[in-house]
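Hi V.,

You were right to ask for the full record rather than a summary. Here it is.
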Amino acid sequence: MSPKRKKKLKETEERERPVLAPARDGKSLLIKDPHLQFVFICFCVMAWLAFYSFMDGSITVGKNELRKSEVKQTLVRDAEEDTLLTAEKLAMTPVDKAVVTKRVVDTTGQRVLLFGDSELEGFMPALSDYCVENGHQLNSVVWYSSSTELWGNCDTLTYYIRKFKPTYVIACLGLNELFVREPQERKKYVRHIMDQCDSLKFIYVGPAFWKEDTGLDKMLMSTVGKGRYFQSKVLKMDRSHDGAHPTRAAARVWVDKVAEWIVNESKYPIKLTKPTEKHRTPPMVILRPSV
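Predicted structure:
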């Protein structure tokens, strides 16, 4: 091979040989990217400043003192605020919450108007004892074989409200509507009954169900409202010979439950201490189906 040919081949081999990075005394940099190196340096400086803020002493350079950052003050202040907030939550005991939500029972004497269907025969005497015991005046109007449709399709209730001037109205109605297939159609009558009571305290005692409910209870609850509707449906009551009306003893237990609900859960709590004896029952206004 000619000398020129050898020289050219040598130059080609040297040109294609990979270039190796110069050795650094056996050591290599962990971070080769200059941008990441800058970020790392800044992080180290901030970490040192944070550490310095927790030091008891200080560093002076000549006559100048190196000022500390406010990292310590910020962290301590946040921790103290969290501690105070937790303490405030713990201070709100169940007793304090009970005070905030305490029910206010109206202890003044009420003029009570009770109206409804034949259920009043057992319901009214027991309620009368409660009224006598707690200083309330009771007037009752029973409309035999009546329904929400009858009461809500006339102004009979308005007439007796004007006559007796009640401050508290209780409806006990619906026993004759347990066979109604579309109870939602009776909603307009229930609303008219409530409209006649206007701004008076109004409570609706649901019928004493003796057969399967077709949706009447749900309609009454949604129309009247939970705070003004007592679900008699949930009670198990002994029945009289007709199998529908509660016995007189069962009716007294019924009224006990209604009175307890009025005081503790209803929208209009009034004084209804359980009577210790039976009193003379006042007369009822009786309306016949033809009226």
